[in-house]
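hey so i finally got around to running the thing on that chain from the lab meeting. sorry it took forever, my laptop kept dying and i had to restart like 3 times. anyway pasting the input first so we r on the same page abt which one it is
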Amino acid sequence: MEYFLDDKGQIYGDVAYRLGKIIHQYENCIEDNDQENFITTLCVSSLQSLLTIYIESYVEYNGYPCTRNNSFFNPKTFISDNNYFKIKNDWVIYNNKFNKGVNVFNFLKQLRNALSHPNTMINNKSTGYSSKNIDGIISSYKFSSYDINYDKLFVIEINTKDLINITKKLANLLAQPIVKKWDGITFNENLLTNYAA
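ok and heres what got predicted. didnt touch it at all, straight out
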């Protein structure tokens, strides 16, 4: 199958689909023997690409195709246990950027900034991420995103299980354009597990 850059983001959908399938394959074939939790590295690397596709599409085109008119996914929803990604308020460790609360889009944008713009420490401040481990196994990641003046900060911590879930959910969301004759709105929640391209 060959995909092209079109108004529905077909080529980006293909990238998302393939990244999501790789994560599913890893879980099904290797994860039981993954004593060093390499799947989290795979997810961090995948998230960097997926979040860039999502954020850039949202900013430039007012949303990814299936997020524009679909009530199933609303990026303006404030984070809670009832959002598509299952993002929880208690993942936010520190926030002086968003006084009126954090919505899904802002959460994902700050996660993307931490992944895509890591820098060195300046006055003990840095945008980027680090991992925590228990008994030598990565248990969670901490993501920090400063603004350009280093006075506004957003910090989140996500355990590895939730990080894997967010990655798969984002891959599934962004993969929608690969469906033949896709209408730009219909959302298949299980595209990564029940679609053969």
